[in-house]
Amino acid sequence: MRGLAALPFAVLASFGFAAQVAAQNIEPVADPLEQAIAEGPLLPSEVLRSSALTFPSILESFEREAAARSDQLSADGAFDLILKAEAYDRVTGTFSGGFAEVGASQPLRPLGAEVYGSYRISDGRFPIYENFYNTNQAGELKVGALFSLLRDRRIDKRRFAIEDTRIAASQASLDVLLVQLKVQHDALKAYWYWLAAGREIGVYEELLEIAQARTIGLTREVRAGAKPRIALTENEQNVIRRKTLLTEAQRNFTNASNSLSYFLRDSAGRMITPTREQLPDTSTLEALPDMQSLLSQEVSDVMDNRPELQNFRLAMERATNKIELRRNDLQPKLEVGVELSRDFGAVGDGGSTFDSTDTVVGVKFTVPLQRREARGRLQRAEAELREMELREQRVSDQIEVELGNILTNLNASLDLADLAGQEVEQASAMVAAERKRFSLGAGDFFLVNLREESAADAQVRAIRADLKGRLAAASYSAATMDLDELGLN
Fold it and tell me: Is the pTM here over 0.70, yes or no?
């Protein structure tokens, strides 16, 4: 400190100024996820990566899984080793006896057993009613064990809790997968809606540009007297109608961009609204899947792997364990205890009766005569299991029907997309032919506009047919848990 104080004020000030300049020259570290999204066209893989890493619902499911794992650790604590110690001494009075004892007990899972051991040492004289505190001069060592032979022999609340929390943790892991599948499915749908809305804007912009360009030519011809003024009015009407279509398409794109920003986030979870400049060239996107490759997958394999059904199987396992616990409550309680104790050293104030090895065996039997509470709990647990089995059957049938509908929709979407492509080709050919006839003076201005708008409608139908195919493919990927397609690998 004295070295710093000795520095001239000007030198310190120059150091401070240099530090400020250096701080101003430091460029902020770019968010890697946001930078990846901003660079180049926005692809579905980038959206899926963003949602998988940052979407709140997925992060929430991970926290629920962590909480379930914590419950599992807490349940294991029922079998923790327990250490206890006790001591007391008489300060005044007729008797001078005091003792100190330290012991440990360890619950065990087999037979609901517990083993324990302790060491106790005493000194001085005790009244006759506290004679059991006496030990020889080197103290007393005691070990023992308790066993359950009927109730709590195979299962009890502690072992049930361990198994129940283990299954609950597995269910929490499945819940993570379920949330991921839903979020990624929704993210894909939002992306394809956004892409289709952007493509529709391009169609209506081109349609409007044609009408606006035609306005210039018609204006020139009307001034020259080659065309009646009504032709210009009709074209202006077309311009207004096409502007309306474009405005509606722009509104739809803005809404789709806002919806996509719900899934497109930076590393801090802040939403990123995509722009039209990020629309990719459709030629760079993967084609819709081949139906033959999809139909080759066995439906039974898909059903076995669905997390909803795995969750039901785990839930029924938990219910079965609960029934076993309730049946355990119906049994009488029969406990057997074995204890061995030995005093060491010279005989103490308790006399020679303490100078021996004592082995004690005890039995304890209890049973409620009516057991109505236990029977009621058992009946409830059995009813809950039957309810769960019926619900599992309903959900299984529902998933099978939904999967069949997805395949049907995907097959129809592929056919419709092919037909829409053919319609676009034919409509474009009709537009080219009608424009040629019109330029030669044989066509009609009304028919030219009609052909152009019909071609634009065909393009929009093709875009929407492709959208339906993309949505059906996304639903199929979610239904079959294709983790690669959903960006979860």
Answer: yes
